[in-house]
Amino acid sequence: MVQFFAIHPDNPQSRLLRQAISIAVDYEEYISIFLNGRGEPAHGPIPPQIFGHKTKETGVNPYVYSWKKGKAHRKPLAYAFQLLDQAGYKHGVDKNTGKPLILFFDAVGTGADAKSSLNWLRKQFRKLGIQLVI
Prior knowledge:
Number of strands: 4
Strand content: 5-15%
Shape: globular
Number of helices: 4
Strand order of the largest sheet: 1-2
Largest sheet: 2 strands, antiparallel
Structural class: alpha+beta
Order of helices and strands: HHEEHEHE
Radius of gyration: 16 Å
């Protein structure tokens, strides 16, 4: 039997899980591989050059990055594992059921890069022991 897990915004367990995933999914690597280094990871909903965009330390996503020596640094994967453990999914296994965490992702991809980028995303989740079913 598959247990469906809704990532609800107000649930503390869900919040910790989302934060762990956000740290593990390395968008700097994505930009390097799939965008030939052209781009920068988003830290908020307002992109650079648009009124309201925050720069430097005030614009950094504090859940994913730490600000050190004038630069944003992605938090270590070890911290993501701590968050995952606090959420009840140590190494991607549900502490209540003993079953691996499986998340479902609906995607419609076309073009040559679709399969590669979805496989890359699966790899990012696998770092935490989470199985991503696309």
